[in-house]
Specification:
The structure is a homotetramer. By secondary structure, the first copy, chain A, is of the alpha+beta class. Chain A has one domain: 4-Layer Sandwich (Chorismate synthase, AroC fold). The interface between C and D is large, with 109 and 109 residues. Strand 11 of chain C pairs antiparallel with strand 11 of chain D, so a sheet runs across the interface. Chains A, B, C, D: Homotetramer. Chains A, B, C, D: Belongs to the chorismate synthase family.
Amino acid sequence: MAGNSFGQAYKITTFGESHGGAVGVIVDGVTPGVEITLEDIQKELDRRKTGQSYITTPRKEPDKVHFMSGVFEGKTTGTPLMMILYNKDAQPSAYNDIKELYRPGHADYTYSRKYGIRDWRGSGRASGRETAGRVAAGALARKILRDKGVNILAYTRRTAGIEISSFDPEVIEKNPLRAPDMKAAEEMNRIISKIKDEEDSMGGIVECRISGVDPGLGEPVFDKLDAELAKAMLSIGAVKGIEFGKGFAAADMRGSEHNDQMSADGFITNNAGGIIGGISTGEEIIFRIVVKPTSSINKVQRTVSKEGKEQEIRTEGRHDACICPRIIPVVEAMASIVLLDHIKRLGAMHI
Amino acid sequence: MAGNSFGQAYKITTFGESHGGAVGVIVDGVTPGVEITLEDIQKELDRRKTGQSYITTPRKEPDKVHFMSGVFEGKTTGTPLMMILYNKDAQPSAYNDIKELYRPGHADYTYSRKYGIRDWRGSGRASGRETAGRVAAGALARKILRDKGVNILAYTRRTAGIEISSFDPEVIEKNPLRAPDMKAAEEMNRIISKIKDEEDSMGGIVECRISGVDPGLGEPVFDKLDAELAKAMLSIGAVKGIEFGKGFAAADMRGSEHNDQMSADGFITNNAGGIIGGISTGEEIIFRIVVKPTSSINKVQRTVSKEGKEQEIRTEGRHDACICPRIIPVVEAMASIVLLDHIKRLGAMHI
Amino acid sequence: MAGNSFGQAYKITTFGESHGGAVGVIVDGVTPGVEITLEDIQKELDRRKTGQSYITTPRKEPDKVHFMSGVFEGKTTGTPLMMILYNKDAQPSAYNDIKELYRPGHADYTYSRKYGIRDWRGSGRASGRETAGRVAAGALARKILRDKGVNILAYTRRTAGIEISSFDPEVIEKNPLRAPDMKAAEEMNRIISKIKDEEDSMGGIVECRISGVDPGLGEPVFDKLDAELAKAMLSIGAVKGIEFGKGFAAADMRGSEHNDQMSADGFITNNAGGIIGGISTGEEIIFRIVVKPTSSINKVQRTVSKEGKEQEIRTEGRHDACICPRIIPVVEAMASIVLLDHIKRLGAMHI
Amino acid sequence: MAGNSFGQAYKITTFGESHGGAVGVIVDGVTPGVEITLEDIQKELDRRKTGQSYITTPRKEPDKVHFMSGVFEGKTTGTPLMMILYNKDAQPSAYNDIKELYRPGHADYTYSRKYGIRDWRGSGRASGRETAGRVAAGALARKILRDKGVNILAYTRRTAGIEISSFDPEVIEKNPLRAPDMKAAEEMNRIISKIKDEEDSMGGIVECRISGVDPGLGEPVFDKLDAELAKAMLSIGAVKGIEFGKGFAAADMRGSEHNDQMSADGFITNNAGGIIGGISTGEEIIFRIVVKPTSSINKVQRTVSKEGKEQEIRTEGRHDACICPRIIPVVEAMASIVLLDHIKRLGAMHI
C-alpha cells in the first residue's frame, strides 16, 4: 500500500534517496531472451544526467548503472532485473543549514509531516535522482517497444514565454532545451540564462508524441490509457498538469468541432490525441505536461524552521534554471513503461 | 490486469453496461460499523441522474439503488458492500441504425478494435451509466470523510466561453450548470440552450476544492496524491486533462513566484494546490479538469461502417448539451474514494 | 487490502452473505468472444447445491444464476462478467437462538472479534454459500481450459476411515461421496449415514488431478503454481491442509527416492506431483486437501455467549454429515481459476 | 504479473540469482521511525547461512547485508528499505558439467521450459540463496512484531524417521537440527550423517508456533490467514505441503471431536491451530510443513540433456543432507511478513 511500484505486467519498484547508498530499480515481468547491454541503459541515463549545459545544474552525479540480476550472457532471463546506481560519497554537512528548515516549494515539510522523520540530506527520496531507476527501467521497455514499431518522442514545447513554431525532431538533442525548433530554443536559452543569473528559475511545457501504437490499447474503465499516462506523468516531481489532444482548449469547443470524424482513410482529425474511451485509436498519441519552475533558487525566501520559527532561506548551490530538458527522458521512460505494460495486459486478456 | 477496480484499501470494482441487466459496484475494505441508508446513497445518485434540466438529457433512467450485501441492521459489516441499479427494459432496436456504424467521438471504434466484439446497445460499457457504481461507492466514502472533517466540492468553472467571476457555494445546486456564480450560470445556460437548439454540444472546465485534509496524505513516489487524483479523473469518460493549483499557468512563472513560502501562520500562498511532493500540505486541494463537448450530437457527421464504408450519421436522441453538471457528482465521488483510500493507506503505514 | 478478490489476469471478486439479498461474483479479465450459456454455469452450480443425498443437507437453496453484464448475444465481451444468485427470503428468526452464541467450530467468534459486528443470520459471509460465486467464475474458466486441453478432476479419496483402492473416473458422479471407487463409496456412505444418525459429522481427504498442463506454468518466486493452489484451497472454509505429489510422506524419503529422474521419454516418476520449483513439469498435477468434519452438528456442545457466559448449544437443522462431495466442485473451480490466471500471466511475460 | 513480490501493506520484492552480482530485497510499507541496525538483520541471516554443521553444506557464502536506502540515523524512514548481499566471485566453470543437463529434483528443466533461457550457474533464481532477501525483510518484521508481543518459533519436528517427543525451546538453537528435543536431535543427527556419507539426503517436517496474536487477524474470503501462510510456506523451494492444527488427522475425526468448544476461560481445545474461518482465534497458531529431501545428491541418477539425450549425473559438491535446519529461519521470516502485513491491513480496515 506504500506506492513505490508502478505497472502490473511490466512492474517497476524503485528505491533510494539522493544521499543514501544507492538508487535503482527492480523490474518484474521482463520478457525473457531480450538482448540488452549496459550501454543501452546508460545512454538514456546520460540524457538525464546533470551538467549538460549552463541552464542545468553543474553538479556531477555518478550515474553509472550496474546489472545485479536478471541478465545472463547478454540477455534478459525473465527473472527480476535489478539495476543500481551508487551514490557518491555523501557530504551531509553541505545540508546542515537546511536541516532544520523547510525549503519553499520542496517536499521537506510534507515528508516531515507524513513520516514524522526526514532524511534531510539533499531531498532524500523526493530527489530527482530517484528517477534514475525509472529511466533505467524505461530504457529496456523502450528498446522492446521500438522492435514493435512504437516510437516515443518528448520535447520542450514552451518555456520562458516562448512557444515552438516549427517542428524538426532532428534538432531536439542538439540544443540545451531539447526543443524541436532551433530558433525558439536559442531564444529560450538566452532568457533562461538571464533568469538563472537573477538567481531564479522558470517553468515550461513538455509535449510527448507516441507513434506506432495499434488501436485497442488501454483497460477501461479505470486503467484507461490516458488515466495511466496521467498518473505516470503526475508521479514525476515537478509536473502539475497534463492534457491530451486539444486538452484544455476543448472547454471552448463544440462537439461538431471536437469529434474526430472518420473517412475511408481513417480518422480525419486527431483532436482526441489518439485515445478515445481510454483506448488507443491508432492515431498519434499526443499529450502535454506542465512543469513548475525549479523550487531551488538562490533568491532569499521566507520559511519556517521545524519549530515553526520564521526564517529567511537561500537554497544555495547549483540548480537547474529550467528542469524541462532533464524531465524529458523521464517522460519518455514512464510513457514506455505504461505502453509496454498495457501491451502485455492486452495480450493476457486475449488468451 | 483488466482495469475495472480502483483503490487499494478502499477498493471498488464496477460492472455493467447501459443495456445489460444492471450496473453496480462491489466495495471491498469498508470500515465496519458505519451507519448507512439507501437514502444516503440515492441522494448522490439523484444528482447524477438524467432529466434535471433542459440542457441535460431528458432520458429517464431508473437509478434506484439496492444493497445486496455488506449491510446489516443499518450498518456496514466490513464485508463486501454490493450495490446494484437495474437497467430498464433494453430497447436495442433503438440502436439498430448505429449497430454497424462508429459514432464520431464515441468509443465504438476503439472498443471494437480492442475486444473484437461490441455491445452496440447504447454505449455498452463506455456508457456514462457505468459511473453510477462509482457515485454509489463514493457516497459512502464521502460520508465517512465528512465525519473526519473532509469536505469535497466540485462545480462548473467555465463553459460556453463564460468563466465564473464570483464564488458562492450556496448557489451551486440551484442552477442547472452547478456553477457557484448565479449570474454566470444564467449566461452559460442561455448560450448552451441555444447550442442545443443548433443540435450541437459544448465543453467546459470543472473545478474541485477539498478542505480539511491533514498534511501527510499521498504515497510517493508513484501513488502521489496528485498522481492518483489525475488517474481517477482521467478515468472519467469525457475528461481530457487535469491541472493542480496554478496548473498550466506555472509554465510561465518563475520559482520565486510559484514557490509557496511559509510564515509562522503556515503557507503564505497555495500555488501548489495543496499538494507538494505528492503529499498533502494541509492547504485546500484545488484541481481543474477539462470536459470535452458531448460526443452525441444530432448534427450530421462523417463516419464509416464496420466494413470501412463511408457514411453519414446523426446520433439522434436526447443528449446532454453540456455534461459538466452531471460529471460533478462523479468527480466528487472519485475524489472521495482516492482520499479515503489514502487515509487508510497512511494509517496502515504507521502501524 | 480486504481480501475478497483472487487472481490477477483472471480476477474474481465475490460478494454476499447467506441471508443478505444475493451472492455472486464479478470476473475481470475475461477473454472476449467466448461462447457461454447460463446452462454452462448452472451445471457446475448444481453439483454444489444442497439436497443431493441423505448425507448432504436437505436444505433447498435457490441456486439459479443470472448474468448481469459482460455477455452479449451468447458471447463474453471482455468487460466485467457479473453473475448473481438471489437468496431466498431470509428467515432470520430461525437463527434467533444462536444470535448471542458462538457455535463451536464456526467463524462466529472470529468474525465478531475481527469486525466488531456480525451478521448472525446463517453464517453470514462465512457461509459455504459464498462459494457459489467461485463455482460460477470457475465454470467459465474451466470451459476455456477444456478448449486448451486442460482437464481437472477432484474426488473424495478418504472419509470415515475408508480409503479408495481403485480409480474409475466414470463412477465419481454416480455416488453421493463423489469417490472414484464404487465399493469404497458404498462403505463410506453407510458409515457416514450412521454418523449422521448419531447427530455427528466426519472429515475426509479430497484429491485433485490436473492433466494437460504444459511445462512452464507458475510464477517464481512467490506466485509459484503450488503456492497459489495452496492459497486457493486453504481459502475454502473447511480445508485445513494441502500436500502435493508424495506430500507429507516425503518427510521420510531420501533424495534418491524422491527425485523424479528423467529418461528420453520424460519423467520416470512423478513424486513431485507435477510441479518443481513452483513451475509445472508437464506431468499430471496431483494434490490432496484435508477437509475438517462439518462444524454444525446436532449434538450438545459447550460454548459461551457474546457476554462470555457459559452455555450449551445444539446447532439444530439439516447439515452435511460430510462436506467432501460438495467441496469438490469448489476445488475444481478454484483450481480452474488458478490455472487460467497463470496461463494468461505466462502469456503476458512472453510478449 | 510476474511473482516476485509478496504482501500488500508490508510488501517485499526480492531479486537475485545465486551467481549474479547480488541477491536482496526491497521492502515497501515499512513503519517509519523503527530503530534498526545491520546486526538485527545479520543475526537472522547467520542462522540461514551455510557451513553450520556436518549435515549442512560447508560452502561458504558471503552473507553480509548492506542497507542501500530507507534507513537514516539508525531509524527506518518509511521509504523503501533496500537490503543487498553481494555474491562472491562466480565460478561458473564449476557448473560447466551441468550446463547442458537437467538435475533431477531441481528446477533446471522447468525454468528452461518456462523462460526459454536459463542461468545455469548454481540454481540461478531457484537457488536457496534467494531466500536471503526474505530473511532480511522478515528480520525487520519480526522485530516490529516482538514489540507487539507476537513470537514466532519454528523447529524440526521430524526427520530420518525420528519424531520429537519432548519440547524445550531452549535447546532449539543448540543442536544442528534445530529440534526442541535434545535426545531426538542427537539421533536425527546420527542418522542423517550416515545418509550423507551414503551420498544421499533426507526430508523432514518443520513445525511453527506463533503466540501473542490477537483474535481478528486474516482477511476473508481469499486472504484468510491460513491461506496466506500456506502460500508463503509453499513459496519456499523444498516445501511440498502444509497443515494447520490437527491437519490431515482431521480426515478421520468427527465434528464433536474436532470442534473447539468454549468455556468462560476461552477455547477448551485448539484443534483448529489458532485459525477459524480464516481469522485468528487468539489461541496459538500452529502449522507444520513437509520438506522434501534435498535434490542435490552425489549419487548417480538418470537424466537427459537439453537435447533430450539420456545421461547419468552426479550433482557433485557439498550439499545439505537435510535442509530443515536452514529452512527454519525462512519459515519464521515468511510467517513474520504475513503477520505484520495482516496487522497493517486490519488496521486500515478499521479506519
